[in-house]
């Protein structure tokens, strides 16, 4: 009986996913958007896409990078909410938790805003829209103008324990880094635990997709901690997760020891050879490697659409693809607002014209 | 029990000076009979002093209410809506006096609260120290000696338990020992030991693993046992202080609790009363309130209002006839037993003042149709008992359905009566002999009878439609329309044409039926013209004669189709009775297959089958019954569109904070 109900629930979810897939922007649409000469024409072009319904006259007549980006991001909570309402009971917790990524990011932004004394009118547009999801009261947190008071307000939330543990170090080091790093570590650990608690058909696909995210996080974090923060091997191990199968402590140790990230990534994911041209031993920036990893992730997500329809795979794949699409659009908006030429930003687009694309 | 939906209502207009806004509002709300109509649209856009005062007053009351809420919360006094004393004295201290009363209480409480809030963190800190030291209490050496060894470096502290494995991996390049001393939730107290030469490495690595070192205060000297004893003493002192402060708080709560609650409810009532004024029309100097009051209460309310001052003008505008009553709200007041059936009616629509209230009719027709489709003595009994349980309200989760209890009881009893007629008990048809017929054996007979019953119900609906027309004085519609006399006669004539084919005795009336049908057809086609003629409307043929003719033809066609489909629709009553019997038979067959000699398994299957039939088929039959009531029966005579009478009361405004 339970499995019959689950099949029905997956059917309901899949209908929503299939209906949504057609709304993802094609490579050609992205190329058109990328060809916009400036921010105003990009806004007009966006208005002709599915994102048009999120843009108001204000964003179109006088487009600002901040408000435009904020408007586009509203699509993400909308889709998460839709899928969560239609997903089988055992999967809703994971979808909710995956969306909490944005809440966690908002929390970090608000704490940073308080620390830097940012104005709420500016800060509020830097937050991710939360749509129908219940969320922390960020405005009230900001109004306290105190990191301690703001942390106290979230003590009973998902993030309370992380902030409590990191608080002594934040005070001692007069920095938010310990809190931000621990929020990330605890969040992804919780997501991984949730993945492990899924029924088998969902677990396999979630391990594959979310495993890729966790591996990417570990690789990029380790590289940044090594080259930007000059952390020791021991510190880098403590600041990474080591949960997913391909990126364990040994890989982290190699990065901490100075190995090139590109070489390691190509060893782990040989299919990325065309995304990361160059010779072994040549340095690439972490951002370029991260973009390549995102392209790999994008391809993995697209493959899920051809997978088992009675699993969480297609829904997760769609949500991740949507997030990457919005990331690309925000990158385009930022680039156009700064007047950058195509060659300056194109390499960082996941959906770059040269990148491997498959439409379903 | 009456077919008439409402008591007579009177429209009332009250005009009064701005100074009396509070008194008038209070009188209207406490009268409990006045239904307000939103007349704020008539306001003149010139806010006067009184309005400014009202909004200032609202803000002040909001502030005061928030302050009182906070005070009550600090004293751990819960506020329940049921505590609101509706009959509490209406007059009392002024707002200034209330604020003055609150000030010293608030000051006392603030001083106490400041002391109370200091204690928990201190207590928590001491308890944490105690937990950390607990594993060392057996050691008889100075605590400082454990921590500061010549070749050994140690860090005592707490860290997230789930980070311990990663921490161990990060330390793998040096010799170390990491002991988990205690664990609570995800927080572990650990002792890290490593070479003194690696002190820096140990420190920064520990920090990166979120190991927060515990620095015991310098005054905590001595052996771990001595430190423990000191901490216990400290905790005892803090707890004593805490208990003392709690007593003080309790004393304050006892001293002021009742008074604070009283003031709170007084302030809330004042605020809610002021909210009512947002529905008043604000004239240049005065306020205007418009609403409805039952005729019998009109003079009492007018007297109360006029007693407030000679400037209060209460006017009951002269009634403009039936149309005026048409706009009046409807007071439907049925006995507890009928409220479930009333709910079925109001789900469709609230009766207009000028039409019959079909609640009494549905009391008869709903159980009748339900029982005919669900005829079974046992299942009907279960249903009736379930209805009684619902009515008793003993199952709190089903409290909202209590009103529907009588519907289930009546339907259950009707099902039992039909069960006797069909000879069915708990889906078994070999226990009782049918008084009338077994549905599955005489299907055609049953269908014909239900068709006939449908014809009777449709005729009743037609007669009721005529009565409603008469109440509205819509004589043209009553006589000529498809739902009036012409429609009824046409229906009977057509029935006569069909029946005379089966009953030889009626054959001579053959031509009478045809002539009657023809006359009725002409009357129905002329109905639009006649109605306009009687109402004095011109032109008589709206849109020209040709358009009128086409329109009339299609209306006639629709009437004929309507009668045919509605009559056939009632055949479903017989069809469902047959389906019910068929489903019952299936379960009996299944039960016999499982246990041919009627053992335990037989009855188990029958119990399951009966539960299924009551739950599943019962639901379907209920929906079908409702469908017949709404679409076949009500649609013939019941227009609805009335407005429910919901007078202003303290309870209603307190519950919602606004007027519905």
Model description:
The complex is a heterodimer of chains A (360) and B (660). Chain A has 360 residues and is an all-alpha fold. Chain A is built from 19 helices and no strands. Chain A is globular. By secondary structure, chain B is α+β, with helices and mostly antiparallel strands. Helices cover 60% and strands 8% of the residues of chain B. In chain B, a hairpin with a 3-residue loop joins β7 and β8. In chain B, α14 packs antiparallel against α19. The longest helix of chain B is centred in the middle third of the chain and has 53 residues. The C terminus of chain B is likely disordered. At the A-B interface, α11, α12 and α14 of A face α5 and α6 of B.
Provide key terms for this protein.
heterodimer; A: 360 residues; mainly alpha; disordered C terminus; B: 660 residues; alpha+beta; four-stranded antiparallel β-sheet; 21 helices; 9 strands
Give the helix/strand layout.
The complex is a heterodimer of chains A (360) and B (660).
Chain A: H1 2-21, H2 27-34, H3 39-47, H4 57-61, H5 65-73, H6 75-86, H7 89-116, H8 120-126, H9 138-143, H10 147-153, H11 160-173, H12 177-196, H13 200-227, H14 233-238, H15 249-256, H16 261-268, H17 286-304, H18 313-337, H19 342-345
Helix pairs in contact in A: 5-18, 6-7, 6-18, 7-12, 11-12, 12-13, 13-15, 13-17, 17-18
Chain B: E1 9-17, H1 21-31, E2 35-37, H2 49-74, H3 95-133, H4 143-147, E3 152-160, H5 164-170, E4 177-184, E5 187-195, H6 199-208, E6 212-213, H7 224-276, E7 281-282, E8 286-294, H8 295-306, E9 313-315, H9 322-327, H10 339-348, H11 359-373, H12 377-392, H13 405-422, H14 443-471, H15 475-480, H16 485-500, H17 510-535, H18 545-569, H19 571-594, H20 600-637, H21 650-656
Antiparallel strand pairs in B: 1-8, 1-9, 2-8, 3-5, 3-6, 4-5, 7-8
Helix pairs in contact in B: 2-3, 2-7, 3-7, 10-11, 11-13, 11-19, 11-20, 12-13, 14-16, 14-18, 14-19, 14-20, 16-17, 17-18, 19-20
